[in-house]
């Protein structure tokens, strides 16, 4: 069996081992020290897996953390505890895993179920580039694994969403929280380039 890392997976070391975030699944997994060392140490190129680790690599591949071939391991849907390895208790992290980044207060919809309706107005007078720069600078300082670009609806102000994506994508996985209302054509190449989901 050969193994290769999934280059989009984000890892963060913690005292118990670490976290892996798999963007295309939008899933976090807590890994004990042994599992973290194994997963975070996988090569970006295909390498032969040691016989003693084949089962562990197959388990990681089923969750999208890595890829295998000869034989290929199919990724599976998974719902359950997100712990890989041995844990005596639920783990905690001193740093946030996810950070919401408010791109704009504007949204043309008035959905009754909206979770952010208290933050929005039809149009926020005085919404400025300085405000956006403050959001980007602050978000850059917070060591989260994921940044959620949200609002209002970021697609109603695609240039603002694009700025946040470009500023944050090097260090964080990016999620775009949108109802789909707005101008996606302008921002679509940036979503693809930075694997935004």
Helix content percent band: 25-40%
Count of domain modules: 2
Total helical segments? 5
Distance between the termini: 30 Å
In round numbers, the mean pLDDT is 92
Strand tally, please? Answer: 10
Q: Quote the beta fraction.
A: 15-25%
Largest sheet: 4 strands, mixed
The helix/strand class is alpha/beta
Q: Can you write the helix and strand succession as a string?
A: EEEEHEHEEEHEHEH
Q: pLDDT under 50 segments (min length 5)?
A: none
Shape by Cα distribution: elongated
**Looking across the biggest beta sheet, what order are the strands in?**
2-3-4-7
> What's the gyration radius in Å?
19 Å
What are the main properties of this structure?
alpha/beta, 2 domains, 4-stranded mixed sheet, 3-stranded antiparallel sheet, 26% helix, elongated
């Amino acid at each position: 069996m050969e193994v290769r890392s999934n280059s989009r997976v984000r890892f963060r070391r913690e005292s118990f081992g670490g976290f892996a975030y798999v963007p295309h699944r939008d899933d976090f997994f807590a890994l004990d020290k042994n599992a973290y060392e194994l997963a975070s140490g996988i090569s970006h190129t295909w390498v032969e897996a040691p016989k003693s680790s084949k089962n562990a690599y197959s388990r990681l591949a089923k969750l999208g953390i890595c890829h295998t071939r000869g034989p290929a391991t199919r990724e599976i849907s998974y719902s359950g505890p997100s712990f890989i390895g041995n844990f005596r208790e639920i783990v905690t992290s001193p740093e946030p895993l996810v950070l919401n980044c408010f791109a704009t207060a504007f949204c043309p919809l008035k959905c009754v179920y909206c979770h952010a309706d208290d933050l929005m107005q039809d149009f926020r007078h005085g919404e400025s580039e300085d405000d956006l720069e403050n959001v980007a600078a602050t978000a850059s300082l917070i060591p989260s694994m994921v940044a959620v670009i949200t609002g209002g609806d970021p697609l109603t102000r695609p240039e603002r969403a694009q700025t946040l994506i470009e500023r944050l994508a090097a260090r964080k996985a990016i999620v775009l929280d949108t109802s789909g209302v707005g101008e996606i054509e302008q921002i679509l190449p940036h979503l693809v380039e930075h694997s935004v989901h």
